[in-house]
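User: My collaborator and I are trying to settle a disagreement about how two of our proteins should look. Neither of us wants to argue from intuition anymore, so we agreed to look at predicted structures for both before our next call. Could you fold the first one, then the second, and keep them clearly separated?

Assistant: That sounds like a sensible way to settle it. I'll keep them separate. The first protein:
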Amino acid sequence: MSERGLETRQFGHRARLALSPALALKADDQAHAARTMWNLLHAWWQMMPKEKRTLANADAAIRQARQEIDFLAVLPAQAAQAVLKTYFQAWKNCWDGWADAPNFKARFRTALTVDVPQGRDLNIVRVHRRWGMANLPKIGRVRFRWTKDLPVGKHADKDNRITGARLVKDPLGWHIAFRVQSLEPVPEPHQGPETGIDVGITVPLAMSDGEMYGHGEWLTAREQARLLGLEQRAARRKKHRKPGERTSRRLHHTYDQIAGLRAKAKRRASDWQHKTTTKIADTYGTVVVEALTITNMVKSAKGTVDQPGKNVAQKSGLNRSVSGEAWGRTVTMLTYKLARRGGTLAKVPAPNTSRRCSACGFTTPGSRETQALFVCKNPDCGWTGNADHNAARNILHLYRTGHALIPAAGRAVARRARRVKPATAR
């Protein structure tokens, strides 16, 4: 941070690429080469003695592999170095207890990516209002959708520039994710009011001041019918496939169509989350949410053979609904958007926020009579109101009474607990 109240901020911006079939094939080849490079590094790691697992030895190994294996040559040298650094960083994250140990990357279950470490290699220019152009190593000059002003040309300097990019392929096609560094003023403290947020399924976001944010289905009725038909078609074709038989191209094509519709729904959900969280961050100075352990909430209820679970189908449907709302992503967006505006995000304990009366403080399990109706069972109170609004008021009350777990301005979520270093990786 400088003396003038400026700070360096790094963020990402993702844009859609417009690739011809020939250029898309080149990008596919590079991504598969990067995936193969990762797998070769992992095999080398497992084969080498522990004292020889150094960055220098790994660098020499990938240089030799690029000379001996022809199809690895399509991957730019800097992209290969990025794979090497990412692999070693994955082991470091594992040893520090933040992630699982790295493993092999399968062909059909791995997102295709290619890194462009140096921003100066991109040579970005803006063609007109809607499109820009960038140079991708060993692919060529490509167009991308210009939806955000980027520090390029005369607007770029040592403090405001693009430091690199990554090509990412999803079911909707190839995209480019820019890594942007900018120098911005330190935000003044947000003067907006405090609010509590209760997340749910029927009402996605309920505020303590009575405001509620909802959304419709992410897919239209016609798209949902098409998705159901594609899933049934895939199930029929998979049923007639013999064990060990290679998946047909028709079945792969059906899977691609299913993935495309699901990706469209996810894109619409993310768009709604961005717009909603931006509005909340602009309005409120302090936002309080529950500290939910979502991974535990979406665990299966099927149980074991000796002790089978109950209401397994209903729990599965609830798990899908919870995962579809992506509460964790909403909290992540709120955290960094509030930090940019000088606001804060705090988390409070989740137990009893739905059972406590926000008017008198009486807690009983039977107060929430329906999904939407809360009726206080205290004879001296009898308060009645929306259950989600009541929970949001309780969340804000916990924060005001000093029960905040994570002040959390600037950090999206709490890191998981540190784990013991795996013996095989030491």
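The second protein, kept apart from the first:
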Amino acid sequence: MAAEIVNPRTASSGDSSGSSAGSIDGGTDQEHVGEPLDSFDSFDPVFALHRGGKLAVQATVPVRDKDDLSLAYTPGVAKVCSAIAERPELVHDYTWKSSVVAVVTDGTAVLGLGDIGPEASLPVMEGKAILFKQFGGVDAVPIALACTGVDEIVETVVRLAPSFGGVNLEDISAPRCFEIERKLQERLDIPVFHDDQHGTAVVTLAALRNAAKLTGRELGDLRAVISGAGAAGVAIAKFLLEAGLGDVAVTDRKGVVSADRDDLTDVKRELAAITNKAGISGSLESALSGADVFIGVSGGTVPEPAVASMAEGAFVFAMANPNPEVHPEIAHKYAAVVATGRSDFPNQINNVLAFPGIFAGALQVRASRITEGMKIAAAEALAAVVGDDLAADYVIPSPFDERVAPAVTAAVAAAARAEGVARR
């Protein structure tokens, strides 16, 4: 199966990079109000591009005549089926299993849109599949589930798993996402990876390593504050500590996640036990005083005085989209390195730098799971791509840098072998 990068069913409608005459959310084209939805693509390039979907299935072998048909299907296929029945490991050699990932969601935490349901999540999941193919050479199938219960999702994915070499969990709301991932990892012998957590963490670590290198510091010298205790915030905190960060405090809507609070979920209670060595309590603003790093994965706005109170030479990674928690113009007044989640500013913290190569490396060696060591190797490889070009506005490479995916793939595959989870 090959995920098509362009939609062959969509006729060209000109340069989609330019602005169209109207916008479905801009309120400037009153003549289109009340028109049926399928007319949107007549004036909006986004709808035009998505018409018919963004993916197609493509055969990898020809079926030109009856001889081809007898090899690709019956009777020839029975030989392969029988061989796999006798030796199940052959499924990796004679089917697509080891080259395809299931992109699974329940539609409860889609981008900045929230709980919009499985059908409405499909355009995002199709897009994710395209990114797998474009940036990692990995085929992926979008799977949107009409269930939200933890056990329902786990049982469904377990039953689908024989068809896939890996599972990428996507846009599933916290705290359910943690339990779903854990249970699937326990029950499956293929990589299960919640990208909202770990992809974000890998790219954040890579950028942070280079920012520290640029300013002559080590990770152990840094105290960070993370705004957001959801999937990304929790994963980033744990991963940075695993990689050697000096200290990190995580904040939610009620302030610093600390052991003295009596309103914590199990996930936050566990987080409180391993973070905040400094014993900080109170608001995000108070936690930022003297901090070396701000990492935003929550939205909202951080007041300028709080940014100004950070340590000299601080790093601001304001990753909320479309509105960073700290606008770069403000951040640059006080910070040595500024990163966002947006492509129109330097240093974009973008998951697409990580997940295609991580899965490509894991699939290449038929890894049974993705370990912390594999993720750290991915971050180190990603940081190394920057090399001697390291600068304040270049601590992380572009997703379009052709060196990225091969470097991450190779590093992950090597780490999998070193950690004993590779099967070839």
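Some points you might bring to the call about the second protein. The chain is about 40% helix and 10% strand. The two ends are 22 Å apart (CA to CA).
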